[in-house]
Amino acid sequence: MINNLSHFKNIPEVKPGIVAVSRDCFPQSLSEGRRKKVVEECNKLGIPIVEINTVVENEKDVMKALDELKQSEVNALIVYLGNFGPEGPETLLAQKFGGPTMFVAAAEETEDNLILGRGDAFCGMLNASYNIGLRGLRPYIPEYPVGMPCEVAAMISEFQDIARVILGVKQLKIFSFGPRPQDFYACNAPIKPLFDLGVEIMENSELDLFESYNNHADDKRIPEVIKQIEEELGEGNKYPGILPRLAQYELTLIDWMEKYIGASKYAVFANKCWPAFQTQFKFVPCYVNSRFASRGIPISCETDIYGALSEYIITCASTLPATLLDINNTVPADMYNNNRDKVKDYKPTDLFMGFHCGNTPKSCMRNASMNFQRIMHSLLEPDKEPDITRGTLEGNIRPGEITLFRLQSTADCKLRSYVAEGEVLDIDSKSFGSIGVFAVREMARFYRYVLIEKRFPHHSGVGFKHIGKILFAAMKMLGVDDISFNQPVNMLYEGENPFK
């Protein structure tokens, strides 16, 4: 089973609070009573919602509600239109709150109470949306934002996952070590859009990392970390001699994060991992990367800053570990034909192999074991027993749901993203590294008209759950309007040749 990460401190804890709003020509008691019913339904779902007593009718009520929200340490706001609502004060509330906000409205309950008990929130949401635009706000508005209490509670449940992404991104720091290798410019991108998102970045030299690593040579905590690794790997501990180096490196990164996190609350890494890494550090860092991802602290390969950000967003959205894989190679025809019962109704071009050297968390794989990086070994240690190229975690990725996601800056500082849901098939990849056979509907067209046409790099963030709806909504709230997805065959991409 893939580990749930909701208890790790590197992921925000969402504390939602609901504020009912009321137009002064409607009974305030109507909005208040409907709010209480929503809270009751939230309690049934286990949502730790804070019920704010102040009902907002005017600007003074806004200030009272904000004070209550602050005292209750609410970090995600639900503005609830129990009736038509005052469009000015309710949007002012969202503006002054500043954090992730959701607007939702009450449906009418019964035909027997449509005179004194009619709330007209269906109409009020339209006025609210106009004022949201006037203030330049980007709240979450569900697909159909009007419902009965149980339906509103379900919307709030979804909002928690979206809010977790927003809170995480706005309080995130990315530590990077080393520049991109010349042959891999693809993942290099401007850092200006990170600041637009609210993300901090601290770029460092590989020498900074190497110095810190050497300073941890006699760290007294190394034996304890080795013991943890041995317990995790079990029979997959094929190269125990490399464990002291890996433990030393793990402690180096932990201490760096604690020392330099500064004003931020959460952190991820984007680290250079070849070609000089092996000759100087004397190992490959893949397995350590996997262990950090298992704790909600993704470490992207090859100094892929936006890859690290994408992994973290996935982690917040799913509360599960994420990984970063190359959209790597096609599936051979004989493998497809020999597994027809497992590929179901997918076309050959719907399939591809996702691969990286050995960075995927053990809980997301099956039969994983410590190994060596074969490509580096052939370059650095040909005809020798693996030494400095040890440190990968290899195995087939578990079959099940996946979501591909990446947020990327273009060379001219424009943010783009994509989301595609699919699955890992129960097929032996018969290859090396952290690898699996992936299936995504209409992958061939998505590959051509999104990944190639929009110049996305080869690294894709992978979440082990269908979270497309959450990611799409979170990107809209973050101001990313260019969001691609794997379009069905009857929906042409912009620029797609219609003459097939």
Give the averaged pLDDT, no decimals: 95
Calculate the terminal CA-CA distance, rounded to whole Å: 43 Å
| Helix-residue proportion | 25-40%
Beta content comes to 15-25%
Strand order of the largest sheet: 10-11-16-15-14-17
Q: Sketch the major β-sheet.
A: 6 strands, antiparallel, barrel
Radius of gyration: 25 Å
Number of domains: 2
What does this structure look like?
The structure is a single chain. By secondary structure, the chain is an alpha/beta fold. It folds into two domains: 16-166, 3-Layer(aba) Sandwich (Rossmann fold), CATH 3.40.50; 171-485, no CATH class. It is built from 17 helices and 18 strands. It has helices spanning 28-44, 59-71, 87-97, 121-134, 149-170, 192-197, 206-215, 222-233, 243-260, 276-281, 286-293, 305-318, 333-338, 340-343, 374-380, 443-452, 468-477, and strands at 16-21, 50-51, 76-81, 101-106, 146-147, 172-177, 200-204, 266-271, 299-300, 322-329, 351-356, 365-372, 390-397, 400-409, 415-424, 434-439, 459-463, 482-485. The strands form three sheets. A six-stranded antiparallel barrel has the order 10-11-16-15-14-17. It has a five-stranded parallel sheet with strand order 2-1-3-4-5, with helices on both faces. A four-stranded parallel sheet has the order 7-6-8-9. Strand 3 (76-81), helix 3 (87-97) and strand 4 (101-106) form a beta-alpha-beta unit. The two termini are 43 Å apart. The mean pLDDT is 95.
